[in-house]
Amino acid sequence: MQRRWIFWIALATVAADRVLKIWVAATMVPGQSITVIPGVLWITYVLNSGAAFSLLRHSTGLFIAVAVVLLAGVAYVAWKHVQLPRRTIWGLGLLAGGSAGNLWDRVVTGRVIDYLHFRFWAVFNLADASIVIGMGLLVWEYWNRQEANQNAQEGADGTSDG
Protein backbone atom coordinates (compact mmCIF):
# COMPACT_ATOMS: atom_id res chain seq x y z
CA MET A 1 0.00 0.00 0.00
CA GLN A 2 1.34 3.41 -0.84
CA ARG A 3 2.45 5.89 1.78
CA ARG A 4 0.15 8.68 0.56
CA TRP A 5 -2.71 6.82 2.27
CA ILE A 6 -1.20 7.80 5.63
CA PHE A 7 -2.06 11.41 4.79
CA TRP A 8 -5.62 10.61 3.69
CA ILE A 9 -6.34 8.47 6.73
CA ALA A 10 -4.92 11.16 9.02
CA LEU A 11 -6.92 13.89 7.27
CA ALA A 12 -10.18 11.91 7.53
CA THR A 13 -9.48 11.24 11.22
CA VAL A 14 -8.82 14.91 11.99
CA ALA A 15 -11.91 15.99 10.03
CA ALA A 16 -14.21 13.54 11.82
CA ASP A 17 -12.74 14.48 15.20
CA ARG A 18 -13.14 18.23 14.49
CA VAL A 19 -16.75 17.80 13.35
CA LEU A 20 -17.64 15.89 16.52
CA LYS A 21 -15.82 18.33 18.81
CA ILE A 22 -17.45 21.34 17.11
CA TRP A 23 -20.87 19.71 17.44
CA VAL A 24 -20.33 18.93 21.14
CA ALA A 25 -19.07 22.45 21.91
CA ALA A 26 -21.94 24.07 19.96
CA THR A 27 -24.79 22.02 21.39
CA MET A 28 -23.73 21.21 24.95
CA VAL A 29 -22.29 22.85 28.05
CA PRO A 30 -19.29 21.38 29.89
CA GLY A 31 -20.42 18.61 32.21
CA GLN A 32 -23.62 17.93 30.26
CA SER A 33 -24.28 14.32 29.34
CA ILE A 34 -26.61 12.86 26.71
CA THR A 35 -27.56 9.19 26.71
CA VAL A 36 -26.83 7.49 23.39
CA ILE A 37 -27.23 3.83 24.40
CA PRO A 38 -28.86 3.54 27.83
CA GLY A 39 -26.55 1.95 30.37
CA VAL A 40 -23.67 1.78 27.85
CA LEU A 41 -22.71 5.01 26.05
CA TRP A 42 -23.15 8.70 26.74
CA ILE A 43 -21.90 11.85 25.06
CA THR A 44 -20.43 13.83 27.95
CA TYR A 45 -18.80 17.21 27.33
CA VAL A 46 -15.51 17.47 29.21
CA LEU A 47 -12.66 19.96 28.78
CA ASN A 48 -9.41 18.17 29.60
CA SER A 49 -6.12 20.02 30.08
CA GLY A 50 -4.27 16.78 30.78
CA ALA A 51 -3.61 13.47 29.07
CA ALA A 52 -5.58 10.25 29.48
CA PHE A 53 -7.46 10.14 32.79
CA SER A 54 -6.57 13.86 33.18
CA LEU A 55 -2.96 12.97 34.02
CA LEU A 56 -0.38 15.79 33.90
CA ARG A 57 -2.97 18.54 33.92
CA HIS A 58 -1.84 21.89 32.58
CA SER A 59 1.17 20.40 30.76
CA THR A 60 -0.01 21.80 27.43
CA GLY A 61 3.49 22.66 26.22
CA LEU A 62 4.68 19.11 26.84
CA PHE A 63 1.71 17.61 24.97
CA ILE A 64 2.19 19.99 22.04
CA ALA A 65 5.89 19.06 21.84
CA VAL A 66 5.13 15.32 21.98
CA ALA A 67 2.49 15.64 19.24
CA VAL A 68 4.83 17.64 16.99
CA VAL A 69 7.64 15.08 17.46
CA LEU A 70 5.22 12.22 16.79
CA LEU A 71 3.89 13.87 13.62
CA ALA A 72 7.46 14.51 12.46
CA GLY A 73 8.26 10.83 13.10
CA VAL A 74 5.28 9.67 11.05
CA ALA A 75 6.27 12.04 8.23
CA TYR A 76 9.83 10.71 8.32
CA VAL A 77 8.70 7.08 8.11
CA ALA A 78 6.33 7.94 5.24
CA TRP A 79 9.11 9.80 3.42
CA LYS A 80 11.65 6.96 3.86
CA HIS A 81 9.34 4.14 2.76
CA VAL A 82 7.44 4.29 -0.54
CA GLN A 83 5.59 1.03 0.14
CA LEU A 84 4.43 -0.01 3.59
CA PRO A 85 2.23 -2.85 4.84
CA ARG A 86 -1.47 -2.03 5.05
CA ARG A 87 -1.52 -2.36 8.85
CA THR A 88 1.40 0.06 9.15
CA ILE A 89 -0.29 2.58 6.83
CA TRP A 90 -3.48 2.47 8.89
CA GLY A 91 -1.58 2.58 12.17
CA LEU A 92 0.48 5.60 11.15
CA GLY A 93 -2.53 7.37 9.63
CA LEU A 94 -4.69 6.91 12.73
CA LEU A 95 -1.82 7.83 15.04
CA ALA A 96 -1.07 11.00 13.07
CA GLY A 97 -4.73 11.95 12.71
CA GLY A 98 -5.48 11.46 16.38
CA SER A 99 -2.37 13.36 17.43
CA ALA A 100 -3.19 16.22 15.06
CA GLY A 101 -6.80 16.33 16.28
CA ASN A 102 -5.79 16.76 19.90
CA LEU A 103 -2.89 19.06 18.94
CA TRP A 104 -5.39 21.40 17.27
CA ASP A 105 -7.38 21.69 20.52
CA ARG A 106 -4.28 22.24 22.65
CA VAL A 107 -2.89 24.94 20.37
CA VAL A 108 -6.23 26.77 20.04
CA THR A 109 -7.63 26.48 23.59
CA GLY A 110 -5.03 24.71 25.74
CA ARG A 111 -7.55 21.94 26.43
CA VAL A 112 -8.94 18.93 24.59
CA ILE A 113 -12.67 18.38 24.15
CA ASP A 114 -13.58 14.87 25.29
CA TYR A 115 -17.06 13.45 24.71
CA LEU A 116 -17.23 9.64 24.42
CA HIS A 117 -18.24 8.19 27.77
CA PHE A 118 -18.61 4.59 28.77
CA ARG A 119 -19.25 4.86 32.51
CA PHE A 120 -16.61 2.22 33.29
CA TRP A 121 -13.92 4.31 31.54
CA ALA A 122 -12.70 7.90 31.45
CA VAL A 123 -14.30 10.29 28.95
CA PHE A 124 -12.29 10.38 25.72
CA ASN A 125 -12.65 11.44 22.08
CA LEU A 126 -12.23 10.09 18.55
CA ALA A 127 -8.65 11.39 18.42
CA ASP A 128 -7.77 9.44 21.57
CA ALA A 129 -9.38 6.28 20.17
CA SER A 130 -7.50 6.75 16.89
CA ILE A 131 -4.18 7.06 18.73
CA VAL A 132 -4.82 3.85 20.69
CA ILE A 133 -6.04 1.90 17.64
CA GLY A 134 -3.15 3.22 15.54
CA MET A 135 -0.59 2.19 18.15
CA GLY A 136 -2.28 -1.20 18.45
CA LEU A 137 -1.98 -1.75 14.70
CA LEU A 138 1.69 -0.73 14.73
CA VAL A 139 2.47 -3.08 17.63
CA TRP A 140 0.56 -5.89 15.90
CA GLU A 141 2.54 -5.34 12.69
CA TYR A 142 5.82 -5.22 14.63
CA TRP A 143 5.04 -8.49 16.45
CA ASN A 144 4.05 -10.21 13.19
CA ARG A 145 7.27 -9.06 11.53
CA GLN A 146 9.36 -10.22 14.49
CA GLU A 147 7.69 -13.63 14.40
CA ALA A 148 8.12 -13.89 10.62
CA ASN A 149 11.81 -12.93 10.91
CA GLN A 150 12.33 -15.46 13.72
CA ASN A 151 10.61 -18.21 11.71
CA ALA A 152 12.68 -17.35 8.62
CA GLN A 153 15.89 -17.41 10.66
CA GLU A 154 15.00 -20.75 12.24
CA GLY A 155 14.25 -22.17 8.81
CA ALA A 156 17.58 -20.95 7.46
CA ASP A 157 19.44 -22.37 10.46
CA GLY A 158 17.67 -25.70 10.19
CA THR A 159 16.54 -25.31 13.81
CA SER A 160 13.08 -25.68 15.18
CA ASP A 161 11.33 -25.62 18.55
CA GLY A 162 9.40 -28.80 17.70
Provide the spatial order of strands within the biggest beta sheet. 1-2-3
The DSSP helix count reads 4
Q: Helix share of residues?
A: 55-70%
Name the overall outline: elongated
Biggest pleated sheet: 3 strands, antiparallel
The number of distinct structural domains comes to 1
How far apart lie the N and C ends? 35 Å
Low-confidence stretches: none
Cα-atom Rg, whole angstroms? Answer: 19 Å
Structural class: mainly alpha
Mean pLDDT: 88
Query: What is the number of strand segments?
Result: 3
- What fraction of residues sit in β-strands? 5-15%
SSE string, helices as H and strands as E = HEEHHEH
Descriptive key words:
single chain; 162 residues; mainly alpha; three-stranded antiparallel beta sheet; 4 helices; 3 strands
Can you offer a commentary on this structure?
- With 162 residues, this protein is mainly alpha-helical.
- It has one domain.
- Helices cover 62% and strands 12% of the residues.
- It has four helices and three strands, in the order αββααβα.
- Strands 1-2-3 form a three-stranded antiparallel sheet.
- The protein is elongated and about 65 Å long.
- The two termini are 35 Å apart.
- 31% of the residues are buried.
- The model has no long low-confidence stretch (mean pLDDT 88).
Fold blueprint:
Blueprint: H1 4-27, E1 33-37, E2 41-48, H2 60-80, H3 86-109, E3 112-117, H4 126-157
Antiparallel strand pairs: 1-2, 2-3
Helix pairs in contact: 1-3, 2-3, 3-4
